[in-house]
Design brief:
Oligomer: single chain
Number of strands: 16
Largest sheet: 10 strands, parallel
Order of helices and strands: EHEEEEEEEEEEEEEEE
Distance between the termini: 34 Å
Length: 174
């Protein structure tokens, strides 16, 4: 794996720098992000890659212009172990027609947690936490192949139609 730490303890201080190495080196398939707060939008290259934060890392935006993870290029992308907060969209996979997954990630106060309205591959968001102070942190999928079951939706009634659009969101888990 290509290690990332914003405290200077690893060769790469930003997730994007590590993704450039992963994109250019076909043998690299994992970027491992150390604990810390990262403030740059992550532009995921159009290739198969796993981006993991095994000890937790926070991707913190300003909620004004950008998306936390921009994965609009095709590629089997796996994201796991993050807190993604204060972005326009926590993950924007609109137009990614490959299979991708998001697991063990907490979404907080994003305009939309996951935007995948034109993502027609088989994708899933499982074992995540969706939180938003106004109850509008939502997932928008393309419907046919979206699996968003097995998540915590921040209220005892489970996801509302507004929170989960055009995806199989299953039932509320406490």
């Amino acid at each position: 794996p290509v290690p990332v730490a914003n405290d200077g303890s690893e060769p790469y201080a930003t997730i994007n720098d590590a993704l450039v190495v992963a994109r250019d080196d076909g043998s690299v398939d994992t970027v491992q992000v150390m604990s810390g707060v990262y403030r740059n939008e992550v532009r995921v290259p159009g290739r198969d890659i796993t981006i993991t934060a095994p000890n937790g890392a926070t991707l913190n935006g300003s909620n004004s212009c950008c998306d936390g993870f921009d994965m609009r290029g095709d590629g089997k992308v796996n994201i796991t172990g993050f807190v993604v907060q204060n972005w326009n969209s926590g993950i924007d996979a609109d137009g990614n027609d490959d299979n991708w997954t998001v697991t063990d990630t907490e979404f907080r106060n994003n305009g939309r947690a996951i935007e995948a309205g034109q993502s027609y591959g088989s994708w899933s968001a499982r074992d995540n936490i969706f939180r938003n102070e106004d109850g509008q942190n939502e997932v928008r999928g393309s419907g046919l192949n979206a699996d968003v079951r097995g998540n915590y939706w921040d209220q005892p009634t489970g996801p509302t139609d507004r929170q989960c659009q055009d995806a199989d969101c299953g039932y509320f888990l406490s």
